Amino acid sequence: MAASPPRPPTTTNPSSPSAPELSLLQVLQSPASGPSRSWQSMPHPDPATPLLASASADKSVNIWSLRDFSLISTINGGHKRSVRTVAWKDFGQSKSSKSTKKERKPVVLGTGSFDANVGIWIWNDDRRWARFREQEKAYGGGNGPLQAQTGEPGQQHPNTTTRGDNVGAEADADVEIDMTRDPDEEDEEWHFSTLLTGPDSEIKSIEFSPPHYSANLLATCSRDKSVWIWEEVEPEEWETIAVLSEHTGDVKCVSWCAGALRGNGRQRTKGGKSGGEVFGQADGDDDVEMEDTHTNTQSNGAGAGTYADHDDPSSEQVVLGSRELLATGSYDDTIRLWRDVEEEGDWICVGVIDSHKGTVWDVKWEGHINYTQLDLSQTPPSFQDADAVLAEFEADWSPRLVSCSDDLTVRVWRRELSEAEKARKAQSRPLLGAAPTGFAGTRLPSVIRPPSSLEHWVEDARLPQVHVRSVYAVDWSRRTGLVVSCGGDGTIAVYKEVKVEDTDGAQPHVDDMVMNGTTGTGAGPGTATGYADPQLPYKLHKMKWTVVAQIEAAHDEYEINHVCWAVRGDRGRRFAGEEVIVSTGDEGNVRIWTLPDHLAVAVESGL
Amino acid sequence: MEDGKNANPLILNPSDLPTRRRRASARQDHSALDVSLAYPAPSFSNDPFARSSSPSSIEESDSDAEDEPIDTQEIYDLIATMSDPEHPITLGSLAVVSLPDIAITPTIPSRPASNLQTVTVLITPTIQHCSLATVIGLGVRVRLEESLPPRFRVDVRIKEGTHSTADEVNKQLADKERVAAALWNPTLQSFIKKMLETCE
C-alpha cells in the first residue's frame, strides 16, 4: 500500500499535445455566495427528463435544466454536512409520444452526505413537472402532434422556490394529482421521502439499481468500510438487506452492472455490412424502449433479457450482459465485486481486483458493445452466417469495468472465465459448430477449481496515462463507448478503444509489461477474446486505447472532482442522441463540454 | 513520552529560524494580509475546506505578485508560526517544519504553459510515535490550502524515517475527501483552531 504515490515524475505523454480539445458549451454557476466545492453532478438517466443534480459541500443540492441550463431549484435543509453524492432512480426510458397515456414515473433523487445519512427525495410539484414533460415533448423533434391540453387551472403553489415560472397558470388534463397529500408538503418542491440511516460515518457514493433488476435496490458506501444494500420493499419503504464489510478501508464508489442494449440503442440494419457499421443511426431520442418487467439473469455468466414495447414490436430492445452485480472501489486500493449468489439475500464478495497501487476513486461498468472489435472480413458472405456470427459475439459479450485511482492510472478489467466455464460455453455453440470439443478444462484437477461463484478478473488494458494528480472520476459512455476521466490536475481526457492496424498489430503482445504510455495491453495475458482464439467461432481485432480529446485547466486552476456523460438536451445539439461531458470542480461550478465535430460524428456512426 | 506525547521537545531559538528581510512596504502588505487569513475563515461553517479564491489570497492582492512569486520562505512563514497542538510552541521552533523540507515544483512538468505548482511540505514529528502527526499534517495542509491561490496543489507528508506509521498518515493526508470530511469533526476543528491561534 504505497502511501504516497509518485506524483509528477511520469514521463511525457506523447498523445496529449496532438489530441483535439473539448469545447466549452456552458458554465453552470454555483448559486452559493462564496466559493464552495461541488463534489459530483449526475444527469437524470431518462433524456426526456433533462435534469442535472449537483452535490455541494455547502449541504445543498442544485438541480439544473440540461435543456436551457437554468437553475431549477436548490434543495436545502436535508443534510447537516456536505452532500457528497447524488443519484437518480432509473425507471427506464420514457415512452415515445404515442404512449403518453401511460402512467407517469416519479422523479426520485438520492443524496448521500458526510452526515452519514442518505436522503431520498421526490419531485413534488406535479404541475410543474407535468408541464416540464410537455415542453420536452414539444421540443422532442416532432415526434407526434403536440396535444393542446385544456383543463382547470391548477392549484397555486405559493411557496415553491421555483424560479421564473408561472406555475399556477399551468393547465393539464393528462396528469392526475394526488389530492390526499398533506397540504403542508405541497410547499416543498422536493419532498423528503425517506431518510436512510445506519452507516457510522460519511457516505461516499450511492447508486440505484438499473430498472431491469429483479428488485429495486440501492447501494451505499461509507468511510466505515462498509457497503450497504437496501431494497425498496414497498413504495418509499426501504429495508437493509445486506451489510458488506470485506473492504479494509473506506469505500469510495459503488456501481451496478447494467449490461448494454443490443446495438447500443440504435436501430438494427438488416444484413450488416463489413467493419463496424452493423447498426444504422438512431432516428430520435425515443427509440429506446424498456419496460419495468425484469429478466432472469443466469446465475453465472451473462444473462440477456428482452424488453419489448408492446405498442411497437419493431422496437424491441434487448439487454445483453446484465448481471445483478455490484462493483465497489476503496481506499484499501482494491475493487470488489458482490453478488447475491443464491438469490436469497445472501450477498457475498465474488471477486477482488487488487492491482491498483492507490485508492480506487471510481469504478464504472461498460455499457456499450464495441462492434468494431468483430472482424467480419473473413466470414462467409451470406447474411445468414453474418447474423449467426453476430449472434455468437453478442451472446459472449460481457461488460468490463473501468477504474481510476490515486496511482494515476485508468484501467480496464475483464472477467476471465474458468476453464470449466469456457468448456461449457464451447459446447453450447449450436449455430456454427466451430468450437472444438474435448476441451482442456478437464486437465485441471477439480480440487483447485474455484467455487463457481468466484470470478477471476484480470487487467484488460491500461489507458494512456494523461493525469499527473489523483484521478477522481471516470465514466464509460453507454452510447458511444468513449471513456472520460478527470482529476486533481484539472485535466479532462477522453479515450477511445480502436482497432490496432495490421502494421503495428501483427506481433502478438507477448510482453504485456511494456506499455509505453500510448497502448494498453490490448489483448493482455491470456486474452480469452484473443485475436485468433481457436475457441471462438468468430475473429476479433486486436484493440488498443487512445486519447481522442482532452482539455487542460478545464476548471481554470481548480481540481475536478467528477466527470460524466449526459445526453445533450439544448437546442444547439448537432444530432439526436448527442452526448456532452459534465464536469464538476472545486470552485463549485459545473461545466458542459462538447466533443470536436469529427469525433462526435464518428462515434455516433459507430466508427 | 507515554501515549505518543513528547513532554520535553527540543526547541530552537527563534533567532536561529530562517527569516528574510523584505522591503518594508511588501512586508507590511503581507502582515496585513495575514490578519485576514486568520482561521477560521468566514465561510468556515458552510464549507470548512473551501479554497480561498477571493482577494484574501496572497498572490492576487499583492500588486507586485509577478515580481515576487511565492517561494519556499513564504510557505515556511505561513506554517512555521502555527503551534503544536500539545505545546504552546510553534512548529518552526520545534523543527516540525523546516525550510529545506519545503519544495515548490511545477505540477505538470511536461506542460510548461500550465501555471499549476505543487507545494510539498515534509513534516518531522517530534517523536517517532507522535500520536498527533496526522493532526499536525492536517493543520499544515488546511493552512496552506486556505492561504495559497487555487493554482497551488499542496502535498503534506511525513519526512521519511521519522514516524512509525508514516505511510498510513501520508495516505490520509493525501486524501482530499477524508481531509474535507475530517474538518466537519468538531474535535479536529478545535485542534486546528488552536494550532492557528499563534498565526498572526
Automatic annotation (TrEMBL), chain A:
Region described as Disordered: spans on this chain: 1-52, 138-171, 265-314
Similarity-based family: Belongs to the WD repeat CIA1 family.
SUPFAM superfamilies, alphabetized: WD40 repeat-like
Superkingdom as given in the UniProt entry: Eukaryota
GO cellular component, one term: cytosolic [4Fe-4S] assembly targeting complex
Pfam families: WD40 (PF00400)
UniProt gene name: CIA1
Keywords linked to the UniProt accession: Repeat, WD repeat
Bias-annotated ranges (Pro residues): 1-11
One GO BP: iron-sulfur cluster assembly
WD repeats: 46-74, 196-231, 307-338
Organism: Capronia epimyces CBS 606.96
InterPro entries: CIAO1/Cia1, WD40/YVTN_repeat-like_dom_sf, WD40_PAC1, WD40_repeat_dom_sf, WD40_rpt
Function field: Essential component of the cytosolic iron-sulfur (Fe/S) protein assembly machinery. Required for the maturation of extramitochondrial Fe/S proteins.
Residue spans of biased composition, Low complexity class: 12-25
Polar residues compositional bias, start-end: 26-41, 146-164
UniProt keyword annotation of NAD present: no
Name the record gives this protein: Probable cytosolic iron-sulfur protein assembly protein 1
TrEMBL record, chain B:
Residue span of region Disordered: 1-69
Transmembrane parts of this sequence: none
Cellular component GO terms, alphabetical: cytosolic [4Fe-4S] assembly targeting complex
Listed Acidic residues bias regions: 59-69
Biological processes, Gene Ontology terms: iron-sulfur cluster assembly; protein maturation
InterPro entries reported in the protein's UniProt record: FSCA_dom_sf, MIP18
Assigned protein family: Belongs to the MIP18 family.
Stated name of the protein: Uncharacterized protein
